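User:
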Amino acid sequence: MKDNPQIIQTPISGNAIESLRVGDMILLSGYIYTGRDAVLPKLKELFETGTLEENGIDLQGSVIFHTAVSPAGVGPTSSNKLEIEGNIPILSKAGVKLHLGKGALKPETVAELNRYGSAYAVIPPVTALLESKTLNRKVVAFPELGMEALHSIEVVEYPVIIAAVNGETIY
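Assistant: Predicted structure:
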C-alpha cells in the first residue's frame, strides 16, 4: 500500500489502472455512474445493442459504483450478487475502468477485470463520509427505478481501496 493516496480523476486511463496495486488507497474525483441489481443488466443490454451513446451514456474510462442514490446518501452494496458481478466483465469490455462496491469477487471475475484492463475497489460502508464528498447528482437513465436508476454523481476525493487489479486480488 502506498503511503500517500493517489488522486485519480475520471475518466480513467488504462495507464492509471496499470499503475495500481492491490491494497492501494486512492482518492477518486470526477463523475461516476451508480448502479446495482436492477440497472446493471439494463446497462449491459444497451452496450450489447449498441445504444449506449444514443441514451447519453459514455462508459469509456468510467467508474460504476454499486449503490443506489437516496436522500440518505450513498453506500456500497455487495458486488458479488449475481446481477452485479455477472455484469462486471461485459461492462469492463464496454469501457468501465473501475467498479466500486464491497465484498469478494470470484477468481473468474478478477481474470476478466484483468483481461479488459479494469479494476475493482472496495468502499467501507461509510454513507455519511461519502455523502459529504458528493457534490452533484442527476438521473441519467431508467428514472422509473427510483433510487436504483442510473445516476451520474460528481465526487471529490472519494476514498477507495483497490481490491482486484492486474489479475490479483486481496481476497
